[in-house]
Amino acid sequence: MQEPLFGSVDEVVERLAGAGYLASTAVATTVFLADRLGKPLLVEGPAGVGKTELARALATATGSELVRLQCYEGIDESRALYEWNHAKQLLRITAARDEAWTDTRDHVFSEEFLLPRPLLTAIRNPEPTVLLVDETDKADVEVEGLLLEVLGDFQVTVPELGTITASRRPFVVLTSNATRELSEALKRRCLFLHLDFPPAELERDIVTLRVPGLDGRLADALVRVVGALREMDLRKAPSIAESVDWARTLLALGAEALDEEIVQTTLGVILKYRSDQRKASAELRLERVLDSAVS
Length: 295
Ligand SMILES: Nc1ncnc2c1ncn2[C@@H]1O[C@H](COP(=O)(O)OP(=O)(O)O)[C@@H](O)[C@H]1O
Ligand SMILES: [Mg+2]
Fold this sequence. Notes:
The protein has 15 helices and 9 strands. Helix 10 crosses helix 12 and helix 12 packs across helix 13. Strand 6 and strand 7 form a beta hairpin. It is of the alpha/beta class. The chain is elongated and about 80 Å long. The site of adenosine-5'-diphosphate (ADP) has 17 residues, from helix 3, helix 10 and helix 12. The site of magnesium ion (MG) has 4 residues, from helix 3. It holds the Pfam family AAA_5. InterPro entries: AAA+_ATPase, ATPase_dyneun-rel_AAA, CbbQ/NirQ/NorQ/GpvN, P-loop_NTPase. This is AAA family ATPase.
């Protein structure tokens, strides 16, 4: 067993905060358990709620190297695991005209001609590593088989080189926007964390942390309006990323409070569809949202 990274749930909260990430107790507890149990952490939730950032902050908080595998449609083993440097192999073969073929072959399938991709890089890294498999749901189902294999025993077999086993297990974070269900088998291997839009108080703290200099009352108002927008039936509800962008915008404009005019002129920062903007313009009752009693 490897030394755990964190001594307690509180320590997770503290160290993540030190890395600029404000985690709820639920988030911190799941991180703590993933570390203790040595299990990959699967973080699912809508875009912009801090899934990728959690992995980044974990790396910073633990002094680990972040190795990121960004998934996309059509990603395959050669992009995720490793591939051979064919161009370099060809050059080597051409240069070795007088050499026996078996010697050349052994040579071109050696370390020198291997191009490690994120999964292999993470497994081989002797230093502490956070492996981020980002937007796993964008990859084809076959890639999940590969992930299962690699995350199962943390080893990779390169037929020409042999089996490479992790000397130190990376902390693995998989993220998914849930555009499709991941396989049961993959889910079973992971600890599951659902991230959603945070409660208003936490979001205000995040915004204030990310945008120093923002007035506290303005931050409050902003978070309330964003909350009200999320309750509308929009094509794309504003996420934490948009709240932060909006806060930066308001600060740059020197706005002191939210009024109809400033909301209308900056709506494009938080709503990215024309139809959502129209709906918000028509339905948002700014005064009512801002007047509602502070709880
Ligand atoms: N808990 C948090 N603490 C601090 N910043 C956060 C938090 N959650 C989200 N953010 C902010 O929101 C932005 C978007 O988060 P990101 O991780 O890119 O979203 P996702 O990967 O879920 O789409 C980040 O750049 C960060 O500024
Ligand atoms: Mg992300």
